[in-house]
Specification:
By secondary structure, the chain is an alpha+beta fold. The chain has one domain: Roll (Ubiquitin Conjugating Enzyme). The protein has 3 helices and 3 strands; from the N terminus they run βββααα. It is globular.
Length: 97
């Protein structure tokens, strides 16, 4: 059990009606520093490592200013609405890293 509220399991419902599962870790410097986020569900998306699902913080959170887990997830969800994301072929649903 995590009594420090460091580790979170989160979900994003994508524009394709898929549910994407993520693991979020709020480190010692959170909320000054963004959380570390890793997709559990496979996704083809810019700034996401295709071998392990890790989100590149510099790609998405370069302007981080004491945000929240929710704001981090909203940034990722907004990318899922972009034309670039919608053009990408996505892995089979329910596949994981």
């Amino acid at each position: 059990m995590d009594n420090t509220f460091t580790n979170w399991n989160c979900s994003i419902i994508g524009p394709n009606e898929r549910i994407y599962e993520l693991m979020v870790v709020c480190g010692e410097n959170y909320p000054t520093a963004p959380p570390k986020i890793k997709f559990v569900s496979k996704i083809n998306m810019a700034g996401v490592n295709q071998s392990n699902g890790e989100v590149d913080s510099k790609h998405y959170f370069s302007k981080w200013n004491q945000g929240t887990i929710q704001s981090a997830l909203e940034i990722l969800r907004k990318e899922m609405e972009s034309p670039g994301f919608k053009k990408l072929k996505q892995p089979e649903e329910f596949t994981t890293y």
